[in-house]
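Entry 14. Structure prediction run on the chain below.
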Amino acid sequence: MTEKIILAYSGGLDTSVAIRWLKEERGYEVVALTVDVGMDRERETLQSRALAAGASRFVWRDAQETFIRHFAFPALAAGARYQCQYPLATALSRPLIARELVEVARAEGAAAVSHGCTGKGNDQVRIDVSVQALAPELKIVAPLREWEMDRESEIAYAEEHKIPVSVTRASPYSIDENLWGRSIETGVLEDPWQEPPADVYQWTKSPSGAPAEPAYVEVGFERGMPVSLDGKQAAPVTLVKRLNELAGEHGVGRIDSIEDRLVGIKSREIYEAPAAVTLLAAHEALEQMTLSKDQRRLKERIAQEYAELVYNGLWFSAHHQNLAAYIQSTQRHVTGAVRLKLHKGSATAVGRKSPYSLYDFSLATYDKGDTFDRTAAVGFINIWGLPVRVQSQAQLLHDD
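Output returned:
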């Protein structure tokens, strides 16, 4: 009996040629699984492409709501940006895709799962480790790790076997997209000295070509989660889609970075993440108002740790559970609204309010109504500076 394998199918070059390879070289019956996390591809097109490539069946899972509510928004609450730049769009989708792979594999009675990740990328780690955590009994087959073919050879293979793919020699980019962001790599982008060509970007206008007049948007939060736009309640997917359009129109969300991959190499990565960048700016502004100094200081460190964890494929780990519990606790009072100005590539918080605000006007103002006790300042400074004075008198004044 032919063994069945479930392939995480994106419809791109790598997974399309992988179907043929798994079928002809390994003898598997291939079920192509597409997990829709906001990709700009039609279900019918992908089904037709998968079957033409040799899949026995095509399975479609709509996971947009799950992805935003349970993966992207928790990362937003954490303030997670890998190496202070990348909002982790692709990295956040991989554990969800792995979970769907496992569920379909069990439903289909499959012995193995597969993906189109390369042998030197991050995604192979994210998917493999997630599958190992959820279903260690499943075998994992990664054609691009075993099949010695470069991108040019893959394109030629697809042409030879009449496998329909959208990648061509004229446009050789490797693209991954979901609602939280779009990543583009390979081709001319592998030269870090070259400015990205205009055709790389699809979600964002060039800041120089963005509208001369700014746009303003108000984002409402409850316990750290976005819940409204301009005073109107909005479901997670609707909210993110609207912000992608609005912020993208004003050139917000372009990222060009040299990134340290988990496998140890540096890679030039281009991202578009209009909604993610905008929401991160809004969330940070609200936390400035509702978290104490000590909470903010520690949470900044936790945000970095959380971003590393997600990037490194450890979503289904006890470490993630521990960090997530802390982050959820910090968000109890992160409720309110932030007004943002979108203009020429920037998303800037220009107003914020919260029923739990720690900002006290009567303490902050220098005008009438000031209630701050200035007379307490001298005693405070004397106590605060005491260790410095003692050490200076005992040690530093005697140094050569």
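The chain has a mean pLDDT of 93.
Filed with the rest of this week's runs.
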